[in-house]
Structure to design on (179 residues):
């Protein structure tokens, strides 16, 4: 770990790897480059692909921890979190970068042990859950909140492909969505 960088400001990219295939690397690369430029004034590009040695079989989360430089790369077998119950909670949290330390998000979830995850509402608008961006379905179109706390890589890819549309979504609007 870099001695000049406090651990709470380390950043994280979590990249899906399945049977040796690395998913959405261009989107992760773009976020990594933008985050390093904004937070650390880095003008160089850390080429993530040069640090990834994709396992040839299985489904993994590749966790890359970085700041000015790559701190660590690990491969964790992917086990999806099952979500059966959600609750909408209000927050004033700002989370514009994907930090390796998630205490603020974990604290929000730990305050609501009666649910599997929480949907965050900020300034009257739904944003995300503690682990993912969200989308709602209405009349053949999937919508994602216009202003998430974190602009996720898969969210951006689906917007770019035209699969997701953005709009402001409030709790009172949820009845118009079927999924």
């Amino acid at each position: 770990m870099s001695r000049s960088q406090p651990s709470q400001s380390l950043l994280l990219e979590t990249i899906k790897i399945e049977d040796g295939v690395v998913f959405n690397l261009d989107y992760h690369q773009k976020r990594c480059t933008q985050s390093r430029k904004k937070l650390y004034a880095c003008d160089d590009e850390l080429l993530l692909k040069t640090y990834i040695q994709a396992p040839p079989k299985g489904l993994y989360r590749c966790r890359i921890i970085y700041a000015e430089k790559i701190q660590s790369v690990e491969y964790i077998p992917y086990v999806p979190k099952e979500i059966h119950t959600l609750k909408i909670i209000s927050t004033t949290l700002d989370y514009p970068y994907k930090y390796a330390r998630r205490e603020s998000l974990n604290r929000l979830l730990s305050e609501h042990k009666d649910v599997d995850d929480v949907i965050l509402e900020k300034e009257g608008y739904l944003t995300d859950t503690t682990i993912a961006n969200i989308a709602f379905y209405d009349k053949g179109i999937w919508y994602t909140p216009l202003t998430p706390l974190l602009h996720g890589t898969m969210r951006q890819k689906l917007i770019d492909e035209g699969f997701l549309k953005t709009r402001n979504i409030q709790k009172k609007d949820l009845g118009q969505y079927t999924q």
